[in-house]
Structure formats: C-alpha cells, structure tokens
Design goal:
5-stranded parallel beta sheet, 7 helices, 5 strands
Length: about 210
C-alpha cells in the first residue's frame, strides 16, 4: 500500500472548501430539488400530525447523519418546542448485531421497519452512492408496507429513485461533498417540518377555542 505524501499546503484546504461550496451553490440554485424537499417535509409533517413517526437510517457517516437528524426531531433544532416522533435505526447494538449475525447486514434496517413501522409512517434512507443494499431493502419493504419513502443520495441516485416517493440527489459523486450537502438539507428539512407541524397545531388549537 502506497502511503500518500503529506501536503500541508493551505492551497489544499482552500481547494477542498471551494469545491464543497460549488456543490452547495448548485444545491442552492436547484429549484426542483427545493420543491422536492418542501414536499417531503410536508408529507412528514402530515404523518407526524396523524400520530405517525419518522424512521431514519444510513451507513457510516450517513448513520451519524441519521442519528443527528433524529436527535433534532426529538429534542429541537432552533428553539424550545415539544418533541417530534423520530427514531434512528442505527443505534441499538443488540438489534444490529443479532440481525447481522442471523440474517446478514443487508437486512439490518428492513427488519426494524418490519417490527416498528406501520402504514403512513415515514422512512428516510441516506446513501451517498444510492446502492447500499440495506438501505435499498429498507426502502423496498417500506414501499410494500405503505410507508412514505424519502431518499438522500448522490448525483445519479443509484437504485434509489424508483423506490422513493421523494428522492433528493446531490450534484456530486464525491462522498465528502455529498455528505456536506446532505447535512445542510437535513437541517432545512427539520426546520420545514417543525414549521408545518406547529403551525397546524396552533391553527387547530385556535379553531377549538372558537
């Protein structure tokens, strides 16, 4: 294995930051992507208002994103408010290891959806390549169970687009830049769901007061 020479040049830092900014700028200018994000957030808010939940999963850095997003739903993003129903399917080590040991890693998320999911829940699968077998199986099962499916992925989307009601593809095939864009949209997704959910709650409360 050839170990690359260290290059502490500030030019490397700037180059990587600039390239990441180019991807974010492309996302910022993609109206179709924005419309899909808004629609996905509205569908998620409607599911939560009906008593359903959001489930999130991914691998590696995307597993960290899944946990990050679930934490923002359950705790908060921008201000104090009641908790929102969300769970990351990447955190229970006994479930993860038993499913991997008994059935294989490709089943690790689908098995949890089978046990925890109900029709009209929402599943958000994160895969930078769009080809992660365990995310694809989870999307397939969600579709079969009547669960709303959202995908966060890279430029081509891999095999995810046909399995997603809402597929958000980042304009890059470089994992680090895709993940940076994912995190930006995950924050905005949570913000949009919060606003839609609590606006509807406030309207219902006002109507009840007459």
């Amino acid at each position: 294995m050839k170990i690359p020479s260290p290059d502490p040049s500030p030019a490397v830092v700037r180059e990587r930051l600039v390239e990441g900014l180019r991807v974010i700028e492309a996302v910022a200018n993609d109206g179709g992507l924005h419309a899909t994000l808004i629609a996905a957030a509205e569908a998620t808010a409607e599911a939560l208002l009906a008593g359903h939940k959001l489930m999130v999963a991914g691998n590696g850095g995307s597993a960290a994103d899944a946990q990050h997003l679930a934490a923002e739903f359950v705790n908060r993003l921008t201000g104090d408010r009641p908790a929102l129903r969300a769970v990351a399917l990447t955190t229970d080590t006994s479930i993860l290891t038993s499913v991997c040991n008994d059935s294989g890693f490709e089943h690790v998320f689908a098995r949890q959806i089978e046990g925890l999911g109900v029709p009209e829940d929402v599943f958000l699968g994160i895969s930078t390549s769009g080809t992660s077998p365990n995310v694809l199986r989870a999307l397939e099962l969600s579709r079969a169970m009547g669960i709303v499916t959202i995908g966060l992925t890279g430029k081509t989307g891999g095999k995810m687009p046909p399995l997603c009601d809402y597929c958000l593809r980042m304009p890059s095939e470089v994992t680090m830049y895709v993940q940076q864009a994912h995190l930006a949209l995950e924050h905005i997704f949570c913000l949009l769901v919060e606003r839609r959910y609590f606006a509807a709650k406030a309207s219902a409360a006002a109507a009840a007061r007459g």
